[in-house]
Amino acid sequence: MTTWTTAHIPDQTGRTAVITGANTGLGFETAKALAAKGAHVVIAVRDTGKGKQAAAQMPGDVTVQELDLTSLASIREAAEALRTGNDKIDLLINNAGVMTTPKGTTKDGFELQFGTNHLGHFALTGLLLDAILDVPGSRIVTVSSNGHKMGGAIHFDDLQWERSYSRMGAYTQSKLANLLFTYELQRRLAPRGKTIAVAAHPGTSSTELARNVPTVLQRAFQVVSPLIAQSPAGGALPSLRAATDPGVLGGQYYGPDGIGQQKGAPVVVASSDQSYDIGLQRRLWAVSEELTGVTFAV
Predict the structure, then answer these.
(1) Do residues 70 and 57 make contact, with C-beta atoms less than 8 angstroms apart?
(2) Is the pTM above the cut of 0.90?
(3) 136 found inside a domain
(4) Is residue 238 domain-resident?
(5) Domain count, the chain
(6) Do the Cβ atoms of 204 and 145 come closer than 8 Å?
(7) Using CB atoms within 10 A as the burial measure, which of 48, 56, 112, 234 is most buried?
(8) Local confidence pLDDT in tens for the 298 residues of the chain
(9) Residue 171 falls in the annotated catalytic set
(10) 123-142 b/e with 16+ CB inside 10 Å = b?
(11) Which member of 171, 183, 253, 254 is catalytic?
(12) 11 belongs to a structural domain
């Protein structure tokens, strides 16, 4: 099979793509590639000033929507604006995220990484779903991480890490949650037959996401990154393939094909055994609805 690149992205004219966290890194490269293929791209970002600067560097039709994933109020406002401003949404790419942050909470009191990476995108997806559901060929792509395999577990007895806190533990929990959410969402979407849910991960990519990693680890990464990491443009390829390849199936997971899935061409990969646990998927879904107050029309 020919190695998949952005040259394989079909014409996106007439399609609307909403991408969270697209002012830098993977999201920026994803948005730029879709805009270059003719899509109307909306980059949903917390800092609209930076968003406008990013949009100015992209070709085609790119607009900016304010969105703070740490605030359910902001998510609701953004979803309303996106529904009002677009007659349909063909692609929702849940890309934004934080990694290994110091202990903190969102504006609604959720642990920062779980609240941003999972609950924020869960709420946004649910609130936008009526603009996506009946659009032929529509997709919801959620960006996870191969780090979900690094001891990731859903700590239902302490979801907000109030008793103790591990930067990496909280991160891997949030990335496992991304996959559990995608697989349960796909199961709910399947009977309607028009929209699919897909997941992707970038492998190891040199982006600002790792800015909260301890300094000693950052220095070590700088030494080995030429060997194991790929550029943001390379890291965006799994998301782009998941979003646009006509052969993609609902519930698939895309990542690099290299050693340890750290870099390489985007292909279908397997996630952890735990991520396929239907009981966990359904339990997390129910808890997420309760915490966010957002229910889905599927």
Answers:
(1) no
(2) yes
(3) yes
(4) yes
(5) 1
(6) no
(7) 234
(8) 579 999 999 999 999 999 999 999 999 999 999 999 999 999 999 999 999 999 999 999 999 999 999 999 999 999 999 999 999 999 999 999 999 999 999 999 999 999 999 999 999 999 999 999 999 999 999 999 999 999 778 999 999 999 999 999 999 999 999 999 999 999 999 999 999 999 999 998 765 554 555 554 444 434 444 556 799 999 999 999 999 999 999 999 999 998 989 999 999 999 999 999 999 999 999 999 999 999 998 9
(9) yes
(10) bbbbbbbebbbebeebbbbb
(11) 171
(12) no
Range of the domain at 119: 16-292
Contact (Cβ atoms closer than 8 angstroms) between residue 171 and residue 147: yes
Tokens, residue 63: 């607009």
Tokens of 165: 């806190």
145 occurs within a structural domain: yes
